[in-house]
Amino acid sequence: MGCVMRLLLDTHAFLWAAQEPAKLSTPARAAIEDSANQLFVSAMSVFEIANKHRLGKLPGFDLVVASYDAIVGRLGADHLPVSASHAALAGKFDWAHRDPFDRILAAQASLDDLQLVTVDRVFAELPWVATLW
């Protein structure tokens, strides 16, 4: 039996796990589907999905926003709220990347000792954030 992993799903990984698991890498999908692992979805992800849907960047995702809690539950994941500590660290990172969603996820992964499930290579710039893809 392998080591239990504590995984934070990046927003795209959450959406793909929920709707298009074939888009996930084989290791990411196996880790997400392994019920021994702990999955977390950030409150920042629902904000990102709702915001991008409002802006027309995610058309047809109104059902995901409306069913967010149920989808998180179906995946066997836990909600991860954004704390003041997460926000402070995200703001202090010496990182040129300005995306507030990514900055919060990086802070959450770092502070809560979570491995970030993401295809986004920008996180490789942060050696203290472990990623899985």
Indicate the topology.
Layout: E1 6-9, H1 11-19, H2 26-33, E2 38-42, H3 43-54, H4 62-66, H5 68-74, E3 77-80, H6 84-92, H7 100-111, E4 115-117, E5 131-132
Parallel strand pairs: 1-2, 1-4, 2-3, 4-5
Helix pairs in contact: 6-7
What does this structure look like?
With about 130 residues, the protein is an alpha/beta fold. The protein has one domain: 5'-nuclease (Rossmann fold, 3-Layer(aba) Sandwich), CATH 3.40.50. The chain is built from seven helices and five strands; from the N terminus they run E-H-H-E-H-H-H-E-H-H-E-E. The chain has a five-stranded parallel β-sheet. Helix 6 crosses helix 7. It is globular, with a radius of gyration of 14 Å. The protein starts with 5 loop residues before the first strand and ends with a strand.
Question: What attributes does this structure have?
Answer:
single chain; 133 residues; alpha/beta; Rossmann fold; five-stranded parallel beta sheet
